[in-house]
Amino acid sequence: MENKRITIPEIAGHKGRTEPLVCLTAYTTPMAKILDPYVDLLLVGDSLGMVLYGMENTLGVDLEMMIRHGQAVMRGVEKSCVIVDMPFGSYEESPESAYRNAMRVMKETGCDGIKLEGGTDMADTIKYLTARNIPVMAHIGLQPQSVLKDGGYKVKGRQAVEAQKILEDARAIESAGAFAVVIEGTVEDVAAEITQSINIPTIGIGASPACDGQILVTEDMIGLLEGPSPKFVKEYTNIRKDIAAAAAAYAGEVRNRKFPATEQTYTRPKAVPAKKAS
Ligand code: KIV
Fold first, then answer.
1. 24 pairs with which residues across the strands?
2. Best mutation site among 25, 142, 220 for ligand 1 pocket (most ligand atoms within 8 Å of CB)
3. Is residue 56 part of a domain?
4. What residue numbers bound the domain in which 22 lies?
5. CATH number for the domain including 207?
6. Phi, psi of 213, deg, nearest 5
7. How far apart are the first and last CA of the chain?
8. 109-168 residue pLDDT tens
9. Which residue's alpha carbon is nearest to atom 4 within ligand 1?
């Protein structure tokens, strides 16, 4: 069957277009089905550890989780390009082990490519993977898998040395063959300079409108999660309130014996009276 989904070269070819790339995260089949008509790319992000599993950070996410959720998302898409995150510990040891794990993700999910966090430190690995036909999206700036090393989720690029380092990261991953790069939690002028100086699309999350595309965690964007969200999140709806209202209405009706009503109840067919013999 012909692949009607947006391809990696089409995503890479967006560089320089006026219309930005639209990207969101998805972890399940129903969510992928809802989002698919509206986006260019769906990321099965390791943020699922925090969003779906209630973990404190993404470090506990493993390859099996990413593969299961990658498969679920692939069952829900018709047109979007699908990228699956490589979880912490699955790609850092060596290019060879990164290849073995990335190949499992590609084969077992059928996704279009993988994403990994890192810049100059991951350039050799990205080169190794892309030389072996694994499309790689890189992730620079704020890297959530470095949360313990960094002592929290801190905006990057405010100091000149740090800004220079992120720029070097962007150049290194581009030379290594990445087809796109996520820039997270980075100040606007650094994101703008990177976007102007590399030839692959930059996809921002908390990295200003200067990027070639934008991504958000869907559950942040729909207001599902409790607690304050980062400055860069915009809530387009508050689904948490809707779910709570629905649960309250259901609980009230069950307690008042209003649910289930006759519309939701199975009954026997009424007995048909036997015809009299004429
Ligand atoms: O894991 C994730 O959802 C991500 C996005 C925030 C880009 O990496």
1. 42, 216
2. 25
3. yes
4. 8-221
5. 3.20.20.60
6. -160, 175
7. 64
8. 999 999 999 999 999 999 999 999 999 999 999 999 999 999 999 999 999 999 999 999
9. 45
